[in-house]
Design goal:
alpha+beta; GIY-YIG endonuclease; 5 helices; globular
Length: about 100
């Protein structure tokens, strides 16, 4: 078994622009997004709030799930977030404590 891997969704705010990613170090990766160290889409659009994540035991599972979610309609992605985080609260503090 590999170490835990994560699929995550960041948002620019409540019902804002979404970004879906995958990582094996969730705390470090979200910190990079928050600090503007991750060049590209999230930096350009100010997408910093961790609103949803899912843990996988293998990176291949996480990558498969990330690709699946990226193909979904926006309404499905929003429903996924709202199911566990209806207020779109930034979950970063939860994963760093």
């Amino acid at each position: 078994m590999e170490k835990a891997s994560y699929v995550y969704i960041l948002a620019s705010g409540l019902n804002g622009t979404l970004y879906i990613g995958v990582t094996s170090d969730l705390v470090k990766r979200i910190w990079q997004h928050r600090e503007g160290l991750a060049e590209g889409f999230t930096k350009r659009y100010g997408i910093k709030d961790l609103v949803w994540y899912e843990v996988h035991s293998e990176i291949t599972e996480a990558i498969r799930r990330e690709k699946q979610i990226k193909k979904w309609d926006r309404s499905w992605k929003v429903a996924l977030i709202q199911e566990s985080n209806p207020r779109w609260r930034d979950l970063y503090a939860d994963i760093t404590t």
